[in-house]
């Protein structure tokens, strides 16, 4: 019996353990930290061996195969020892994909991947396809392969998950965009991060498709020097294609395999240029899967959007409060500010991942009337923007930030939480940060 060791007892780790057990592996889960009670109960219920609060090195080194959770870097000593010994160390999406014959649609990118994944899943489901949604979003892909019998999967995949693939081959791959993010995991070399994202297409053949943003110079530049074998389907707000997706005279036009469909951009529920791009990517997938044009159109109109991503919370005394806590990098915040229609009080800050805030300067000059820094260390934000806005306040509590914003905002203004940073200085996660913002707004 082959031994599967799972490093990390979170969503992907426990999902992999369930699938491994079902496939007949001898499974051992090891977590350096503590495993959450809910996951521990699943392991106990399934009779899976586990440990927490440290790794039993001698036992782990006996593994035939290791799945490591995306949060564990390749540089971790245990991972290094395994690789030196010649043990295969893979990610959950690699492990699960080996045991399903389903059609895989995989979506990656620095921003927009969650919205694009949810929108694509929504259209496929409305189109009557038997489809599951997993990966970086919601449920573990491996657990789904163990428990369900979906014919299609839409997977949101991160660069960390792609680092651990060997044979993973999506029939349709999407790269929404690539901007500097997580560079601490890539030796602060942007090229390493780009290469990681493009692993999504490394096993694709001429029968597969790569859908990508042709306005993104990082993507188009990389493709020039590193050609892919898959058929390329570009989308753009600026160019037109004989094969691809583009916008002309307020119509979103999808032209693939000599089939063309058109829909008015007015019908898209989600506003903003970045959401037009997410819609383009999703409509390209839908057309490749031969979903009816009317279904695609209806689905775009009925889609509700993603929690913590430009989520309208409440209007209080004609001031709109928007929760964009999922904006954990500068590029995401750029999109948020770009879509603001009214003078904006901007709540920003958190754990800075080596951010360069200068690209936000034109948007801040044009849209932002006041800035509230919500973080432990706001020096960089203050240095960058204090000369551009009239009012800048520092705070370390969400309640205080929301109350100050409420006082500063006039009728017709918008209060936007779009942090451009990770949340871990003051919050458990971006979801926790967004929830606390919504609670504070509702408590006004």
Automatic annotation (TrEMBL):
GO term, biological process aspect, one: peptidoglycan biosynthetic process
EC assignment: 6.3.2.9
Origin: domain of life: Bacteria
Entry annotated with the keyword Translocase: no
Gene: murD
GO molecular function, one term: UDP-N-acetylmuramoylalanine-D-glutamate ligase activity
SUPFAM superfamilies registered for this protein in UniProt: MurCD N-terminal domain, MurD-like peptide ligases, catalytic domain, MurD-like peptide ligases, peptide-binding domain
Protein family per UniProt: Belongs to the MurCDEF family.
Annotated residues for binding of ATP: 109-115
UniProt cross-references to InterPro entries, sorted A to Z: Mur-like_cat_sf (IPR036565), Mur_ligase_C (IPR004101), Mur_ligase_C_dom_sf (IPR036615), Mur_ligase_cen (IPR013221), MurD (IPR005762)
GO CC terms, sorted: cytoplasm
Species lineage: Bacteria, Pseudomonadati, Bacteroidota, Flavobacteriia, Flavobacteriales
Pfam families for this protein: Mur_ligase_C, Mur_ligase_M, MurD_N
Function: Cell wall formation. Catalyzes the addition of glutamate to the nucleotide precursor UDP-N-acetylmuramoyl-L-alanine (UMA).
Reactions catalysed according to its record: UDP-N-acetyl-alpha-D-muramoyl-L-alanine + D-glutamate + ATP = UDP-N-acetyl-alpha-D-muramoyl-L-alanyl-D-glutamate + ADP + phosphate + H(+)
Protein name in UniProt: UDP-N-acetylmuramoylalanine--D-glutamate ligase
